[in-house]
Amino acid sequence: MNADEKDGHGRRGFLAISAATLGGVMLASGVRLIEVASARAPGTAASKQVRWGLLIDTQKCASGCEDCVKACATENGIKDTGRPRTDAQWIRKVELKDRRSGRTLSVPVMCQHCERPPCVDVCPTGASFKRADGIVLVDRHTCIGCRYCMMACPYKARSIVFQDVTDQNPDVPRGKGCVEGCTLCVHRIDRDRQPACVEACARAGHNAMIFGDLNDVQSEIAQRVAKFSTSKIRADLRLNPGVHYQGL
After folding, report:
1. Fewest CB within a 10 Å sphere: which of 15, 28, 81, 148?
2. % of the chain exceeding 90 in pLDDT
3. Domains of the chain
């Protein structure tokens, strides 16, 4: 084992010990570090048999509709400070136009929850990590705000908190100086609920977003992906995102 390998093993060992030590540290009311990292529900480990994902039907996604964006902001305590260059935004609408046909599309873009997330690969502290069920998260305790993950993400899906954070949702701890991004509303998933964006889209009658277990052949999302042609943003990178797009 060379010196670099020793350093790597030592760092991973330190992080493992730190995580175990912080198992009882409260992130917020009812939320503990180890529970967020490994729990599907209180006392239940996240399973590798599950792969949570989203299917977005761009043909049903209405141009100009911001219901999913607003729902995400409300759920996660993200506020518009009037500074768009520094405001956090976990989901954004991207308007696309085919120059040849003139066809336009409105596409929600968020963290793609990759099977091989580059944000995790470049993180020097292990703050960026992936749960067993495919959800990619950031540990606020170990994030140092270096923003390497922001540079590595090909989807521009992460942002850093520049302002002081107040009136937080206790289930979604945020902190100044930490990088953050879409969590697929993991706090809802672990309670057998749908992500806020999916609920808002259905409530508006668009039904453009389907959430579920991609590994469950009986689930609606798995059946739709098997039946219809879907695309993944930057599929050429072979990151295998958990977010599929229909009609893109």
Report:
1. 81
2. 64
3. 50-246 (3.30.70.20)
